[in-house]
């Protein structure tokens, strides 16, 4: 069976072209909107699926929340780890019915 397209796409120039304008300021604005809508408070637990490089995870963390991020792209997780070296735990899991997930607890 062929490798799924998304396994490599996130490291291509096309990804950078599509998401190159996304930054921490945008993520901060989105996180503040999510907090306002959900009423989340410091100490709340957040699950960031497809966390990528951890932009949103870092914003939630800066608000005092406990964040678990999952992403299928190990390179993105490496970047997230490099950007946030403190208080991290890295693990991988694999289930027969799903692609490998690499998780980082920020």
How does this model look, in words?
With 106 residues, the protein is α+β, with helices and mostly antiparallel strands. The chain has a single domain, classed as Vaccinia Virus protein VP39 (Rossmann fold). The chain is built from five helices and four strands. It has a four-stranded mixed sheet, covered by helices on one side. Helix 3 (24-38) packs across helix 4. The longest helix has 15 residues, at 24-38. The termini are far apart. Mean pLDDT is 76; it is low at 87-106.
Please outline the helices and strands.
Elements: H1 6-9, H2 13-19, H3 24-38, E1 45-49, H4 55-62, E2 66-71, H5 74-83, E3 89-93, E4 101-105
Parallel strand pairs: 1-2
Antiparallel strand pairs: 2-4, 3-4
Helix pairs in contact: 3-4
Average pLDDT, to the nearest integer? Answer: 76
CATH architectural designation: 3-Layer(aba) Sandwich
Low-pLDDT residue intervals, each spanning 5 or more residues: 87-106
- The largest sheet has its strands arranged as 1-2-4-3
CATH homology superfamily? Vaccinia Virus protein VP39
**Tally of contiguous helical segments:** 5
Query: Count of DSSP E strands?
Result: 4
Number of domains: 1
User: Radius of gyration over alpha carbons?
Assistant: 14 Å
Assign the CATH class: Alpha Beta
Principal-axes geometry comes out as: globular
Note the main sheet: 4 strands, mixed
Percent of residues in beta strands: 15-25%
Helix content: 40-55%
Structural class based on helices, strands and sheet pairing: alpha+beta
**Run of helices and strands:** HHHEHEHEE
């Amino acid at each position: 069976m062929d490798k799924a397209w998304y396994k490599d796409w996130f490291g291509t120039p096309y990804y950078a072209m599509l998401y190159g304008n996304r930054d921490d300021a945008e993520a901060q604005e989105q996180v503040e909107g999510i907090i306002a809508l959900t009423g989340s408070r410091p100490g709340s637990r957040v699950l960031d699926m497809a966390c990528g490089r951890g932009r949103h995870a870092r914003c939630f963390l800066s608000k005092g929340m406990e964040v678990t991020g999952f992403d299928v792209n190990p390179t993105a997780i490496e970047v997230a780890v490099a950007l946030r070296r403190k208080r991290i735990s890295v693990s991988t899991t694999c289930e027969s019915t799903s692609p490998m997930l690499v998780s980082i607890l920020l």
